[in-house]
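Priority: medium. Attachment 1 of 2:
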């Protein structure tokens, strides 16, 4: 995966946890997260990028109004999908794996 796509995905996934959305938007986000997971498993970067764009477009709009009272936090059923994707993106990143290996070895381990 290109580093730019990985970075963009990581930023959007980090934002998802704090979004306040209507239930119908959360459904779109949930479907997008599942599509991202499936695309990662299939190593289909085109499908992954499309699903990421779907998630981003379902996110909050800059203009808020009277309908804010119907906004909801991230549903628990989608939190696991989100966590799986964040973990998958980190484990697919060679720099992240190297940092994890150093962290696991401890500060006194030989380089």
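Attachment 2 of 2:
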């Amino acid at each position: 995966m290109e580093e730019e796509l990985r970075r963009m995905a990581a930023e959007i996934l980090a934002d998802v946890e704090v979004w306040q959305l209507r239930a119908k938007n959360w459904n779109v986000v949930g479907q997008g997260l599942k599509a991202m997971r499936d695309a990662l498993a299939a190593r289909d970067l085109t499908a992954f990028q499309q699903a990421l764009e779907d998630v981003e477009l379902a996110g909050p709009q800059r203009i808020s109004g009277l309908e804010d009272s119907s906004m909801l936090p991230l549903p628990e059923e989608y939190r696991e999908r989100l966590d799986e994707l964040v973990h998958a993106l980190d484990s697919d990143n060679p720099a992240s794996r190297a940092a994890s290996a150093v962290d696991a070895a401890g500060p006194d381990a030989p380089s």
